[in-house]
Automatic annotation (TrEMBL):
Its cofactor is FMN. This is Alpha-hydroxy-acid oxidizing protein. It comes from the Bacteria. FMN binds at P87, M88, A89, S116, Q142, T170, K228, S250, G306, R307. The lineage of its organism: Bacteria, Pseudomonadati, Pseudomonadota, Betaproteobacteria, Burkholderiales. Belongs to the FMN-dependent alpha-hydroxy acid dehydrogenase family. Keywords: Flavoprotein, FMN, Oxidoreductase. Residues 8-357 form the FMN hydroxy acid dehydrogenase domain. The keyword Kinase does not apply. PROSITE patterns: FMN_HYDROXY_ACID_DH_2.
């Protein structure tokens, strides 16, 4: 695979969002429907986008901008950008190179990667491709609690041995309705999980993670533990008390619960609740560099980018995913300059116009 784009590989897309049309033209209906699936009528997914659009930036002028850079401090380390690829399952659905192409694209742009438990390529192969690259972003492993703690711990130990630097426990997927129109094609599978089995609602709910599971994971791994899927301020306060090292404000891209609060709206409330006591990240609907700056202004240390990366991957493999991430990087740098700041850490709510929700 190549990360060097050619005129025949990349479409004339001037924004990450523009890749959706190109990806839809290239993917079969099965893959496209899986990528684009949302709960119910899709209101949560639309609310995510609407919330970022409703906020307006308030530019500053005549500020010193020499030395502008995108580096951020996160979990005690300095990283090239405040961008990470969100954990997304079964990426070989959209391109044969799957998660390997995505992680190479991310590393080439100084962007982090959160690998899904439902990866379609071995976690060791993915990490080995970029682990020693000093210019990459964070390399984290997303975890779903399995049917028992022993199975969960096996995944954690594999992630530790493969060089992943944090565990991201997804806590908002207690029960999800199946995607009725989706069929797993031959040659694509979640390689670290047993074949899918039927589970009734009662069994799924009984296996949902609890605060006791969080305490157990903290006792079992020395890696930082972040919780993904926190939306309510009370849950955020409980997370601080639990001792986790970070939170990802997320509604699962609108795939779990329709009419749930938008991630951007929840971010403001969660940031107020934790008061800077631990790092916050956010995902859900971000597709422009200006969205990233708004998230930083609301209190996020970094953001996770989801569907736009898959759109780039499905359009042109690693080169397409890298182009999406480059567009976001460049747009963020331009937005920072226009708003008079040189570092992501300098973003504050003063960058948002008063009428912003």
């Amino acid at each position: 695979m190549s990360l060097v784009p050619t005129l025949t590989e990349l479409p004339p897309a001037r924004s990450a969002a523009a890749y959706a049309t190109h990806a839809q033209a290239r993917l079969d209906a099965n893959a496209w429907n899986y990528v684009e699936a949302s709960a119910g009528d899709g209101r949560t997914r639309q609310a995510n986008r609407d919330a970022w659009d409703a906020m307006t930036l308030w530019p500053r002028v005549l500020q010193p901008l020499g030395g502008l850079d995108l580096t951020v401090e996160l979990l005690g380390r300095t990283w090239p950008t405040p961008l990470l690829v969100a954990p997304m399952a079964l990426q070989k659905l959209v391109h044969a190179d799957g998660e390997l192409a995505t992680v190479l694209a991310a590393a080439a742009q100084g962007v982090g990667m959160v690998l899904s438990t439902q990866t379609s390529m071995p976690m060791q192969q993915v990490s080995q491709a970029v682990r020693d690259d000093v210019t990459r972003g964070p390399l984290w492993f997303q975890l779903y609690m399995q049917g028992g703690r022993a199975a969960t711990l096996r995944l954690v130990r594999q992630a530790e041995a493969a060089g992943y630097e944090a565990i991201v426990l997804t806590v908002d997927a207690s029960f999800r309705a199946p995607h009725a129109a989706f069929r797993l094609p031959a040659g694509v599978a979640a390689v670290h999980l047993p074949p899918p089995a039927h589970h009734d609602a009662g069994g799924l709910l009984a296996a949902a993670p609890t605060w006791d599971d969080v305490a157990w994971l903290l006792s079992e791994t020395t890696l930082p533990l972040l919780l993904k899927g926190v939306l309510h301020p009370e849950d955020a306060r409980e997370a601080v008390r639990s001792g986790v090292q970070g939170l990802i404000v997320s509604n699962h891209g609108g795939r779990n619960l329709d009419t749930a609060i938008a991630s951007a709206t929840a971010l403001r409330a969660v940031a107020d609740a934790v008061g800077g006591t631990l790092p916050l990240l956010v995902d859900g609907g971000l597709q422009r560099g200006t969205d990233v700056l708004k998230a930083l202004a609301l209190g996020a240390s970094a953001v996770l980018i989801g569907r736009p990366v898959l759109h780039g991957l499905g359009t042109a493999g690693a080169a397409g995913a890298a182009h999406v991430l480059r567009l976001l990087r460049d747009e963020l740098a331009i937005a920072m300059a226009q708003c008079g700041i040189r570092r992501p850490a300098a973003a504050s709510r003063g960058l948002l116009a008063p009428e912003s929700p």
